[in-house]
Each structure stands twice: as structure tokens, then as C-alpha cells.
Known about the structure:
- The chain is an alpha/beta fold.
- It has one domain (6-34, 93-228): Rossmann fold (3-Layer(aba) Sandwich).
- The protein is built from twelve helices and seven strands.
- The chain has helices at 6-10, 28-32, 37-45, 48-59, 65-74, 83-89, 97-106, 119-129, 159-172, 190-195, 206-211, 224-228; strands at 23-26, 110-118, 133-142, 147-153, 180-184, 198-202, 214-216.
- A seven-stranded mixed β-sheet has the order 4-3-2-1-5-6-7, sandwiched between helices.
- Residues 1-10 have low confidence and may be disordered.
- This is phosphoserine phosphatase.
- Pfam families: HAD.
- GO terms for molecular function: L-phosphoserine phosphatase activity; magnesium ion binding.
- Keywords: Amino-acid biosynthesis, Hydrolase, Magnesium, Metal-binding, Serine biosynthesis.
Amino acid sequence: xxxxxxxxxxxxxxxxxxxxPGLLVMDVDSTLIDEEVIDELGDAAGVGExxxxxxxxxxxxxxxxxxxxxxxxxxxxGLPASRFDDVYARLHFTNGALPLIERLHAHGWKVGxxxxxxxxxxxxxxxxxGLDYWIANRLGLDDxxxxxxxxxxxxxxxxxxxxxxxxxxxxxxAIDMRQTVAVGDGANDLPMIAAxxxxxxxxAKPKVRAAAPHTIDTRDLTRVLDFLAH
Length: 230
């Protein structure tokens, strides 16, 4: 059962509410969707176990995220870009993700994601889910061969980028930070979880669960609404 305990219930009056437009920002891998996209890409490239090991250590906060990302992406060098279609077909929205987004939109909320994953996949997810905003990394492509070149192009989406996106999107919509929600499962989500009016560790790694003010341990994103229906 998720840790929405007496302590959580006692501060509901100070939390965001559906009665007023707000902003929810969440992670993508293992939050908006059940899978870790880079692990799925690793499987497609035949290096799944090696990448999954680095992913787990990075999400536990044992490795610097940017360094871990570069190391994993380097292993994808030579993967045909056409394999994105296959990977996307294997992904699943987390139970409750789409109903949560629909319910928030019905109450005038904005919903965005900030992902350490990749635009090549996140763009499709965002369109299918009807998201308002999204940010992700972008994979380097060798145009001559149509394969990944083993690099990430542009700035890396770090924990600081996630935090800044929360602030920027709230400001863009004139939303008080007290009316914001941040949801994620990894160590790089902690700054935005701490800064939001409601920060939730969702089926998160142990270190993240310990540090987050609120936790949901059931893979059902509609449980976020339990905190807002007051």
C-alpha cells in the first residue's frame, strides 16, 4: 500500500487542489511508462544486460547521470534508426497514466514530462498522451548509414533541467508553485520532487522513496488524484 499515511493526510490542506488550475510534471521511464526506453534500445542492439546494469546504478544515485547516459548511448552505436518503431511498439503507458492526464486537463491543468530518455521516443508518447510540454535528450544519427552514432546531441537533461522545467512551465502559465506536482522514480527526479507543491516518489528506488515527502507504491498513476481531491 502506498505511503499516503497520517502524516500525508494531515497536510492535505497545504497541497495543490483540482479546484484550481495547476501543473503536473513527471518523469517518463518507469513513471509515465512501465519500461526504461534505453534498456529496450539496448535489447534491440544486443547489449541489453550491460545497459540495464548501468541504468539501475544511475537511478539509484550510484553514478553521475550524464556520465552514465553517455556510457549507455555509446553502446547503441550502429543501431538502425528504423528500430525505434519496434521499440515504441513494446512500450506501455503505466496503469492510470492516460486517465490521470485526462482528468487534470478537464480541470484546467497543464501536464508535462522531462525525460532523461530520448525525443525519438518521447515525441510519440507525448502526442499519444496529449501532453502540453515535453523535454528529452536527442540521439546522434549518422545520416549516411541511418544508424545511431553513439552520441547524444545538445544539452543533457539532468536533474537541474528537470527542476528548471517545473519552474519555467509554472511561470509560463502563471501557476503558483504551490499548485504544482512532480512525480518520478529516480534520483535525478528528487530536486523537482522537493520543489513542487506536491512531490511524489512513484514506485521509486529506495533512496528516492526515503528522500521524497510522499510516496505511491502501487503502479496506478490515478492515485496522484487522491492527494488533489480536497
